[in-house]
Design a protein that fits this description.
By secondary structure, the chain is α+β, with helices and mostly antiparallel strands. It is built from 2 helices and 10 strands.
């Protein structure tokens, strides 16, 4: 009887600590799921891709997008964020050598406050034959990407993990 109590206490303790341990490995929280991908657009030389990002809350630290690099070239993929006055706010680069063909590519930067931003994907090097391509949403002209946010605090992150567990446990949708 005593072993059963100890086992129950141990399992309860383990289940209670799991969200705290899991939260240590979480650096970015995606705002949604990545949309289904369709066609792609090439980015090279003077050919750029421009899109609008509507940042709904503070702490935007990056985005995930699917990129295509079939020749595994080392052309850089440059990501620039501008405010609505065309002032450069953030700028980051991904080395094309590390962009796998058809894999998810993370572009990260210093946290941004909420607001609207114009994003530009460009590549100063390369030509049409060895261009890096970025995927578009299926049946749409929008770029397929997901915004990444920094967790507000570890405590709120642990709370959201517990809330998700309880929703699944009790079948709340």
């Amino acid at each position: 009887m005593n072993n059963i109590k100890l086992t129950v206490i141990f399992v309860f303790f383990l289940v209670s600590l799991t969200p705290a341990l899991l939260s240590l490995g979480i650096r970015y929280i995606p705002v949604s799921e990545l949309p289904q991908i369709g066609g792609s657009v090439k980015v090279y030389g003077e050919v750029t891709t421009t899109f609008l990002i509507k940042n709904q809350k503070d702490g935007l630290v990056g985005l995930n997008l699917y990129a295509k690099n079939p020749t595994r070239n080392d052309n850089d993929l440059k990501f620039s964020l501008f405010d609505l006055n065309n002032q450069l706010v953030r700028d980051t680069e991904a080395d094309g050598f590390y962009i796998q063909n058809g894999e998810l590519t993370k572009l990260s930067f210093i946290p941004l406050p909420k607001g609207e931003y114009k994003a530009v994907l460009s590549s100063s090097s390369g030509n049409y034959e060895n261009a890096i391509e970025v995927y578009m949403e299926k049946n749409s002209d929008n770029l397929a990407y997901v915004l990444l946010y920094k967790p507000v605090s570890r405590l709120s992150l642990i709370g959201s993990i517990y809330l998700g567990w309880f929703k699944h446990l009790f079948g709340v949708k």
